[in-house]
Design goal:
Blueprint (H helix, E strand, L loop, with lengths): L6 H9 L37 H25 L3 H34 L5 H13 L13
Helix pairs in contact: 1-3, 2-3
Length: 145
């Protein structure tokens, strides 16, 4: 029997855009569209409600990285405004674009592991299986649609 993923493991698996439960299946079908079920273990992800939190976190992370760097360049070299824009707009955009999916995966992993929203039933099932020593039930893809 496989033990349920710990919180750090579920968060890391989500950050890697993998299923927080098994770490094998892909968490996203499209850029920010979470799959309904894991292709490997069948875990249901329809209850996830990441909403706007990933975007807020990405703004905070990127802001805390870009603003000090921008200020350091300004203080050291005083480049013209057009050069600052030419440098920092693409850096900011690429950083935000690159972090959005992993951060959303992390939030889904958090919700899944802690039983937030509709994940409470899945968490109770995992705890019951761990307590009773019952192996988790795998859901066949043909029954998931």
């Amino acid at each position: 029997m496989k033990a349920s993923a710990s919180l750090p493991k579920a968060l890391w698996r989500g950050f890697k855009m993998k299923c927080p439960n098994c770490g094998q299946g892909h968490l996203f079908g499209r850029f920010l569209k979470v799959v309904q079920n894991c292709e490997a273990c069948g875990e249901d992800y329809t209850p996830q409600r990441a909403d706007d939190l990933p975007a807020y976190l990405v703004i905070a992370i990127v802001g805390h990285l870009v603003v000090p760097a921008l200020l350091a360049v300004e203080m050291a070299y005083s480049p013209p405004a057009w050069l600052q824009l030419l440098i920092w707009l693409p850096v900011t955009g690429l950083a935000a674009f690159s972090l959005l999916q992993p951060v959303k995966g992390t939030i889904v992993g958090l919700q899944w592991q802690t039983g937030m929203h509709g994940f409470e039933a899945a968490r109770q099932r995992r705890e019951s299986e761990a307590r009773d020593g019952v192996a988790p039930l795998l859901v066949s893809k043909e029954f998931v649609s």
